[in-house]
Structures are given as structure tokens and as C-alpha cells.
Amino acid sequence: MPNTRAGRFGRLGWLWLSVLVLVIDQVSKLHFASSLSLYQQIVIIPDYFSWTLAYNTGAAFSFLAESSGWQRWLFALIAVVVSAVLVVWLKRLGRNETWLAIALALVLGGALGNLYDRIALGHVIDFVLVHWQNRWYFPAFNFADSAISVGAVMLALDMFKSKKSGEPVHD
Predict the structure, then answer these.
(1) Is the pLDDT reported for residue 102 higher than 90?
(2) Measured between alpha carbons, how far is 140 from 65 in angstroms, rounded to an integer?
(3) Which DSSP state fits 65?
(4) Fewer CB near the terminus (10 Å): N or C of the chain?
């Protein structure tokens, strides 16, 4: 039976991807925070896509953004716990679990990017605005949110793949 374990460090080698996501996220946020004023829009594709600067004190879709400030620390704590779980999960992955390692690394990098904003700034910087003819707006988001979303979709696909093939979801 071939050894499917990736060794003592599991798939921690994929942490480079988390660091890359974190760096791109922070550089892009710094760029838009320094070049736009709050809620200023730069239309990229008329009626569909703009750059804009927004601050989110809540979670996804501004959940709890109107609270008195306690949510900053709650979401920071959740991000720290989730990040620790993701690192342990990466360490426990086998050699043949590259797809899952990439998914976890993307989610981890995004979580750390938004965690940094929460702790350092008290809010998350968002700058991507998708809309439809000024009638429908998707909540503003950032590179970290995109990485988390792609990683989450990959995790879901991995679950379905594992169930369909009859493989256990985890060793």
C-alpha cells in the first residue's frame, strides 16, 4: 500500500499560497484606501463593475455592522480559531489531497487578510463593487473575500467528489 501521507508537516507547504493571498489582499486594500475617498466610485464597466472604497465593521454582507463594536472582537476571535483549525487540517493532509490543501490555503489567506484589517483598523476595507444598471448592487468585497469564496467552493466540490467516489472525506 503506497504511503499517502505527506510526511511530518502534511501539506503545510501550501502556506505560501496563504501568504500570497494575504500580501495581494493587503497591497490592494492599501492602494484603494490611499487613492479613493470613502464611497467614491471609479466605473470600470458601466452598469456592471466599479472600484469603490467601503468599510465593513460586520461580517459577510455587513452582518452585525450596525452593532456597537463588540462584533470586531468576536469576528477576530472566530478568524483566529478558524485559522488555527485550517493550519492543523493542512498539517494532517496526505500527499494526494492537493485540491483540498489549495482550498484550505485560500480560505486561510483570506481569513488572515480580513483579520488583520479588523484588528489594525477596526473594519475591513472593501473595494470591488458589482452592480447591474444601478438597480442591483452586490455588497462590496475585496481580494480576501474572493479567496475565501473560491476556497469554500473548492471545499464543497471536494466533499461531493469524496462522497461520489466512496472515499472517506478525511483520514
Answers:
(1) yes
(2) 13
(3) T
(4) N
Residues designated as active site: 126, 145
CA distance 26 to 35: 14
Three-state secondary-structure class, residue 43: strand
Q: What is the pLDDT of residue 17?
A: 98
Instruction: Provide the residue type at 12 as one letter.
Output: L
Domains in the chain: boundaries: 12-164
Residue 19, beta-bridge partner list: none
Residue 1 pLDDT greater than 50, yes or no: no
Residue 128's SS3 state is strand
Mean pLDDT of 150-166: 82
What percent of the chain stands above pLDDT 90?
A: 63
Q: Which grid cell is 34?
A: 490611499
What pLDDT score was predicted for residue 14?
Answer: 96
Q: Residue 119: enclosing H or E segment and its boundaries? A: helix 98-121
Count CB neighbours of 30 within 10 A: 11
Write the CA distances from 32 to 25, 43, 112, 159, integer angstroms.
Answer: 11, 14, 19, 36
